[in-house]
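Entry 14. Ran structure prediction on the chain below.
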Amino acid sequence: MSDPVFEHAQKRVKKKKGFYAHLASFIGVGFFFLAMNLFTLVEEGPEIWFFFPLLPWSIGLIIHYLNVFGFPGNGALSPEWEDKQLQKEMQEIRKKLNRREQKPSNFEEGLELKELQKQREEDWQNDDLV
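Output, structure tokens:
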């Protein structure tokens, strides 16, 4: 039998580790492109190009960061925020279900009009009702 808290924590650590590996490869490749750009400069004028392949990759890195850690400051979209929102939604659903189950004891009696009940007892037979 495994502990669900341990499994959840293990998943979180794995996600963080994946982000840091992504960040390390981004930095390493960025330095490689910078070095390659500096060694291939021409005398006519400097052509700085190393950041062009890093721009779309940086967008992917930002998305990966937001997926793992959420928005900085308020923690929106972070796993903690998601867990909190999940608990909140489950609590709301439970409240709604409890309200439905907690009917008053005279619920069905309260639906019928007393005058109709009186008239039915006096005039109507069970055969008359459809």
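DSSP finds five helices and no strands in the chain. Will compare against last week's run tomorrow.
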